[in-house]
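The aim of this short unit is practical: by the end, you should be able to scan a pair of folded records and say something sensible about each. We start with the first protein, listed as its amino acid sequence and then its structure tokens.
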Amino acid sequence: MPEDRPDRTFTEYHRAHRHAAGVQETDAPRFQIPAMGDRYPRSSLPALEVATWAREEHPERFEAFDLALFEAFFGRTEDISDPLVLGRIGALVGLEPSALSDVLGTGRYRPMVFEEYLEAANQGIHGIPTILLPGQAPIVGAVPYPDLKRAVDRALAGTAAQRPRDASSGAMVIQEGTAFLDRPTSG
């Protein structure tokens, strides 16, 4: 649950996950390894509220904002629970800091954030990031890129085998708007 916890600090668990992420391929994002005991963001709620606002109201800026949040937290260990930090990150991608501040002040997107959180929890998702691929257990946390690529390749191969084929040409039939990697399947 995205709760406010002012006593949070980086633990060995956080360091281990960042270390695993930090030994990725050269084109992977950079991860800063914080010292144990360094201050950890009080809550993910402010960042989630602002990200939801960006996704809903400024979809053309959402991807850039999402990446900027990732880099701020994992790459520079910034406190993404701080409204001033969020305002600065938003401004970098063209979001108006005063509008962002209003979003946090009104709590307008908080119910949506909690609804999405509960939906994920009901599906067994309790960690960020979690990647769901058909026919496989959820992939939670930072995993080496080659392992993630193998999992995606297996999922794509399995999904491609299940896709309908055109009777005359044998080509796969792909319907517009169909998402093949959106939820796990049993198997």
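Turning to the second protein, read its sequence before its tokens, just as you did above.
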Amino acid sequence: MSHATLVFASSARILPRARLDRRVVASRSRSAGARSARVVRVSDGKRPTSLGASGAPSRLVVVRGVDAEADAETASAPPSVAPLSAAEGYAKLDGVLGSIRDLPPSERGDAAEAATKDVSAALNGMKAAGAVQRWDCYPELQRRNIFPNELAQMGVKDASAIARPSDANDFNFIVAVVMSTSFLALIVGVVLPGDWGAFGSYLIGGISLAVLAVGSTAPGLLAVAIDRFARIDPSYRDRIARHEAAHFLVGYMLGTPVAGYSLGLGTAHTDFLEAKLERKVYGRIAIKESTMLPLACISMAGVAAEAMAFEDVRGQEADLRDLQRILNKCEPKLGDQAQQQLTRWAVWQSASMLKRHEKAFEALVEAMKGGASVPECLRAIENAPETTGE
């Protein structure tokens, strides 16, 4: 599921010059200031290293954000929030996000960056008025070592499936192609007379060989076909919706404005609005742990959602690639064991958030399956009843 995969296939959206899979942009809003960062995935054919994942083509992560000086500047001036009613806030979100959606792809990037302040202000105003409760409801994150049994307590079915590549979609596709072409070749050989039957059988049988050859040399060429075939299974479509809804909800609860999403064939992704960019990925500015932790949770939220609902995790290769690039920019540097612990913590933290807000998550999944707009998805999140113990 490439994808998210977070994770789910590529298309040109906010940045039309590259084929993007998904961009994750985190804009952390707190009373003492603001912090922003962004994760973008593009195909590069490389694989995760220290996290132990392999298999499907992975994605490159781009992380950008404001520097420490900008953080200090914003920290010195606490923002003033004007309360907004639910009607006013959702109307503003409808207008701003709708105008971005209606623009040509080449213009959406600048429009999204310009709209970040307005969207965040609307959500913060609604929160100040008590119209929303789950927006930015996790202002601080603290990581710790997590043991496998703690993941099980959060509902993860098989903790060993995390960071373990899954080739279930590829295997099912290959088996279906081989079985169907073999059966068709047999029918043709029996029905057509003489040499025509023999020629037809060899020709159809060659399809399986061609698919196997392409799959072993350039598997990316079969990605769309594999994704299309997998979507025949309703549980796979549910898997995609849950994966993307988890990115959406966890990002929202960590104070990250959502720009849009897609569950479409080969283009499943969740887009987050962006604030200040152009610094940390291409420069040498490191990412602080306080910035890295929410990004890690957003990156691994889809993995957590799949692991809570299914025995295997099919959409994690690109997400792990996202996380690896984030960890590579983190200061102080983390060793391999620390990175594995951080990965486990991010899955656990995301799973605990999804479990605590389970009803909001299920409402969001259904809204996204129905093609709801982002403001409609936010209404579904906020209107969902509280889960017991929330």
